[in-house]
Amino acid sequence: MSHLAAPLTDMPPLTGVAGTDPYIELLKNVLTGAVYEESAWRREDGYHRDKFRPLKSLRQFFLKRWAKRGYLVVKAQHFDAKKRELGTDWPLFGYSMVGKRRLDQLEVAIRTIAAEQIPGNILEAGVWRGGASMFMKALLNHLGEGHRQLWLADSFEGLPKPRLAPDTKDKRHDLSECDFLKVSIETVSANFERFGLLDENVRFLKGWFCDSLPHANPGKLALLRLDGDLYESTMDVLKPLYQNVVPGGFVVVDDYLAWSGCREAIDEFRELHKIKAQMFNIDGTGVYWRVPQAQPSVAAA
Ligand SMILES: C[S@@+](CC[C@H](N)C(=O)[O-])C[C@H]1O[C@@H](n2cnc3c(N)ncnc32)[C@H](O)[C@@H]1O
């Protein structure tokens, strides 16, 4: 960790700010799939959260053939409520893998943005099935803040093959062949529609971050949520977009404490731009900080 990175402090308790509205609590449980124990079942297609390499075997060959015929082989597993709360398993169905606590943090952030009237739009880079973004959109609407644009940036075809030299941070994290992480723009759009959340203020930015974001124009941002896992997927968001986050705005990093490449990117960027804002630990995986009123200017690279 860089010498400039502020020590991590736990996120303040929700008391008095969030966590009490039954509609919002139900949304969290539905979006994370926690209302269905079967969402803990695991797809047997060679990938799951703790195993990054495809199984190159006869079994794999047959699983793929069955999948082509429309059969999905799943392994029944015990539902672990703690894992789902902390976002440390991948739900077979459900709309978000970030877990309840990271949705709690988004609730606090969006409520604060509304209460303090922090100007700007919201952008999530790395949306998968759209769940965390759907949560933010539902809450914005609920708070009468639906006029803010919500930008969804994703390849909509999974993670990139790490493009940086093989000795770099993302080397061990090649998930580019992981079908579970490939969710099309049509599916995400349909997910929003299913919840009555698709309107003209939901904007899609399709493409690899390094191609799409330098040319994107999402306006000023009250909240930037980074959820691209890799070093390069984190840097490729920060470089063009950090400067858009307004004072008082939130920068939320889904993977800081779980993915070393993501952590290196954040620490490097904060050190380079002398960002000293206090970072808060959400749940042992995600962190966030708020952009101070007077921060050194960060020119887009
Ligand atoms: C961990 S998932 C996001 C989880 C999501 N926020 C949720 O609520 O469950 C990571 C997503 O980032 C996308 N992604 C990662 N790196 C990317 C890049 N460099 N360019 C475009 N999309 C990327 C993947 O396609 C995937 O949808």
TrEMBL record:
Pfam families registered for this protein in UniProt: TylF (PF05711)
Mind listing the GO molecular function terms for this protein? macrocin O-methyltransferase activity
Q: What is its EC number?
A: 2.1.1.101
- Methyltransferase among the record's keywords? yes
Q: Which domain of life is it from?
A: Bacteria
| UniProt key word Transcription regulation | no
Which Gene3D superfamilies does the protein's record reference? Vaccinia Virus protein VP39
Any one Gene Ontology BP term: methylation
Q: Which UniProt keywords apply?
A: Methyltransferase, Transferase
Q: Kindly provide the name given to this protein in its UniProt entry.
A: Macrocin O-methyltransferase
- This chain is encoded by the gene named tylF
